[in-house]
Amino acid sequence: MDCNKLASVCVAALLATGGFALAQNLEQWGTAGGWDVMIDSTLGNGCLIQAEYNDGSVVRIGFDRNEGAGYVTAFNDAWGEIEEGETYSILFDLDGQEYEGEAEGIYLNGVPGADIYFTNEEFLFDIAKKHTMTLYNEHGEVMAINLGGTYIGLEATMMCQDEMG
Predict the structure, then answer these.
(1) Domain count, the chain
(2) CATH number reported for the structural domain that contains residue 150 in this entry
(3) Dihedral (C-alpha) 48, 42, 145, 113: value to the nearest 10 degrees?
(4) Tens-place pLDDT, residues 23-50
(5) Per the domain annotation, does 67 fall within a domain?
(6) 3-state secondary structure of 106
(7) How many Cα atoms sit within 13 Å of 52 on the Cβ side?
(8) Among candidates 139, 143, 16, which has minimal Cα distance to 88?
(9) What residues make up the domain containing 145?
(10) Tens of pLDDT along 42-96?
(11) What is the mean pLDDT of residues 138-155?
(12) 164 located within any domain
């Protein structure tokens, strides 16, 4: 499937069962490319990478084995206007290449976040090959993060996933 032509099909909003490391059953697997590599037992022992950024955002990129999908989840205390369960139209800009989709508003330990699931796991590796990911909603830019080390992190996530069977 070509995610550039079918971005709305590639991106499907699902309510998260995963989330912030402080509240989840996450097991540290290792580190790679500046990311923590972790296992989330609530997502069928899906492996993920997680990093915290200077703006206070915590970002996860990983695999939900219960849903057979990849995801990007981000949390930030500054996003207080998010409503739990609400669907938001979003735009990803990856080094100038744009993808439209939907995010599900979530809270974990009182911290607002957005959960974005992808049915095409190759899209996650497309993210990993880029330098900057900027996320927009209808009001403008939500966050911009440096993706340095993401490809190395996702390669480690695949090794982790192989270990999980």
Answers:
(1) 1
(2) 2.60.40.1880
(3) 180
(4) 467 999 999 999 999 999 999 999 999 9
(5) yes
(6) strand
(7) 6
(8) 139
(9) 7-159
(10) 999 999 999 999 989 999 999 999 999 999 999 999 888 889 999 999 998 999 9
(11) 92
(12) no
